Amino acid sequence: MKHSLIIFDLDGTLADTAPDLLGTLNRITKPYNLSQITMEQFGQIIGHGAKAMIQRSFKVNNKPLDDETLEELFKAFLTDYSVNIANETVLFEGVLDAMDALGEIGYEFALCTNKTESMARLLLNELGVTQRFKSITGGDTFKFRKPDARHLSETAKLAGFKVSDAIMIGDSATDINAAINAKIPSVAVTFGYSDAPIKSLEATKIINNFRKLPAAIESISQQ
Fold this sequence. Notes:
Largest sheet: 6 strands, parallel
Helix content: 40-55%
Number of helices: 9
CATH superfamily of the largest domain: HAD superfamily/HAD-like
Order of helices and strands: EEHHHHEHEHEHEHEEH
Structural class: alpha/beta
Shape: globular
Strand order of the largest sheet: 5-4-1-6-7-8
Number of strands: 8
Number of domains: 2
Oligomer: single chain
Radius of gyration: 17 Å
Distance between the termini: 10 Å
């Protein structure tokens, strides 16, 4: 098996987290008289962690944001999100069946997200899937994060693999560019939060549901 580790992104790839992320973001920014971020705007907001979401929400509203306020809002975000992290969040349909099928033929799994590691672990625990992953890393696990290739290589290393053993599964330019930078194949999902056309991301394969993931992975591994 040429590629034996599958690295998943979390938000918009493994799980539909948008409702709870948006809920927290809109609650903490409401005192600053920002207009509520809508689901249609979500692709412009997500991608580089909670701080970036906060910064982008202010930018969308053409409001200034100083560093002190950003830090205060970041703390407020983590506090609010930690108690509302799985109100509406669900795993995408078919992902567990796909992981089961791939696991049966020898694939292992890791998770690499720009969410903070503690929040990622909290959510995975709430969803009951933590034990499926050999390693879990977040945007604050290292001094670098996706699309930096080192985020993938260190995630693979913690799982007991070389990054060249891995395939990245993601929904955005952040994920696919990380894979390109790490010189590994990738699979892009069409049902996530990308604000760019999926075909423009230059992923190795594109799938529109997780039923197609095992075949896509096997096709890549046979190349």
